[in-house]
């Protein structure tokens, strides 16, 4: 990766100019990261039903033009002032509900609803200065969920990135940033579900999966003391990442969730899969 730190980076992005209209792949400019921000090169992304919902913009206040995408994996290209926990070359997963690490919610063991970085689908700009980092011929393009991964480069608040082991295959673990970890769609009877974090929200997800008739509910948590309690909510298998030499994506058989793969030039086909409810997850290769 060339040294482009501090420079405006031109790249391709799938831009949504209007609600419900096909995304347009075109050249955009991505500004350098500002204080507590990180610019990453997105390697793989995967469309989610949340992207489709806000792209349709039914019953919403439309915010266009916009770059969607929030489920991805990439590599840090450069960091802004104040970022100390990440550096160029780090492999990361963007997360749409971040943690600043300083507010009362972040410091509490009972909640991760950060006061600063909690999910906000209506905000199309960076939280630091209220400006966007994307533009086309000088015209600003709005962000989505603080991530906007349908772009070869994107700028994200440092609190919305999770550093991962560089040996993890980015084309597989990209779906961990949302798809598997949030279990948005209603699971089918007899299927398997992984729940990351066995706090109140995670256990609620387990209950929902149990009601849906899921045959195997995998609880992932660093605290083994939570497993016995989790059994009461339907969790059948407990995984503590500290106990395994194998990467978590192998333990959870992540590859089974990936049913389709397309190059970036065919990202609208991935949207069609979502629209028609065909398959589980379609991974988009940004370099293809």
TrEMBL record:
Keywords of this protein's UniProt record, alphabetized?
Metal-binding, NAD, Oxidoreductase, Zinc
Residues forming the Alcohol dehydrogenase-like C-terminal domain are: 200-250
The reaction(s) annotated as catalysed by this protein in its Swiss-Prot or TrEMBL entry are: a secondary alcohol + NAD(+) = a ketone + NADH + H(+); a primary alcohol + NAD(+) = an aldehyde + NADH + H(+)
Q: Which GO terms describe its molecular function?
A: alcohol dehydrogenase (NAD+) activity; S-(hydroxymethyl)glutathione dehydrogenase [NAD(P)+] activity; zinc ion binding
Which GO terms fall under biological process for this protein? formaldehyde catabolic process
Q: Which Pfam families match?
A: ADH_N (PF08240), ADH_zinc_N (PF00107)
The cellular component terms of Gene Ontology attached to this UniProt record, alphabetical and capped at eight, are: cytosol
Which family does this protein fall into? Answer: Belongs to the zinc-containing alcohol dehydrogenase family. Class-IV subfamily.
Assembly, in brief, is: Homodimer.
Q: What is this protein called?
A: Uncharacterized protein
Which source organism does the UniProt entry give?
Spirodela intermedia (Intermediate duckweed)
Task: Please name the taxonomic classification of the source.
Answer: Eukaryota, Viridiplantae, Streptophyta, Embryophyta, Tracheophyta
